[in-house]
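User: Is it possible to get a 3D structure for a protein together with its bound compound? The compound here is magnesium ion. I've pasted both below.
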Amino acid sequence: MTTLTETPAERRSAGAPPVEAADVHVRLGASPVLRGVDLRVAAGEVVALLGANGSGKSTLVRTLVGVLPPTSGEVRLFGRPLGDGVPWGRVGYVPQRVSAAAGVPSTAEEVVASGLLHGRRLRLPRGWRDRAHEALELVDLADRRRTATQQLSGGQQQRVLIARALVRRPDLLVLDEPVAGVDRPSQEAFAATMARLVADGTTVLVVLHELGELAPLVQRAVVLRHGRVVHDGAPPRPRPGHEEAEHEHVHPHAAPRSERGEGDMGLAEGPFEAGMSTTTDEVAP
Ligand SMILES: Nc1ncnc2c1ncn2[C@@H]1O[C@H](COP(=O)(O)OP(=O)(O)O)[C@@H](O)[C@H]1O
Ligand SMILES: [Mg+2]
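Assistant: Yes, that's possible. Here is the predicted structure of the complex:
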């Protein structure tokens, strides 16, 4: 991302890790949900965030991408404290759930194109349809681009959200349970897409219930319990007889697909907040 026009501040943060969180505390209502989380994700790493339901995984990723303010502690993305200084165009975020019934039917390409919106300028850049098309190709949904998202399966809707994050061609991709409740073809398409992005050097922080199809890609696991990091290191091995074990066969789609996604998506810069209007669960309290 080095350019001739970068500012001194940008030069200073050029080698900074995509994610740095130091002693992050988050309180929601009366409850302390995160209690002193330290997390650093280096460029090019693929880190899985694991933990039981309610352990604080979603709260942590929402805090990292600036949706929730930390009660105390500090978060930096690419060396810049959360706020306008963060190069948001380099950050893609896929929230945990898709809202079930949006009032206005949006087509898949419209939802994806919302990932191109700048913070305060609600006008799509020229060529948005082509960019949306390319991003939808990455998740194998190009043929459904004019379909209303409500008519898609849950797995396909999730893929639309992933395409919305990818249309920005992010350097850092944060995903919250991207394959939970997702059908098998969507899981495989997702794993193949991730493999290609990782091969391209994308940094990934992904909340997962189980490693599943992504196991071959995950280099490090961070486990939360009651809002604290209780493990940060090697990913857990699949338990014998557990569902994950049967996923250890050959992954036909796990290799980068050279025939795809080679074109430059030429993606816009800008904070992603404007693109988050299709979810209901991402409004900070
Ligand atoms: N808006 C909120 N107000 C109060 N408590 C919340 C809120 N959102 C989540 N929590 C609580 O915070 C804890 C962690 O939630 P969450 O981060 O969603 O966990 P996970 O993603 O690991 O399942 C849970 O106990 C949950 O009930
Ligand atoms: Mg969650």
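The beta strands are 19-28, 31-41, 46-50, 72-77, 80-81, 91-94, 172-176, 203-207, 220-225, 228-233. Residues 243-285 have pLDDT under 50 and may be disordered.
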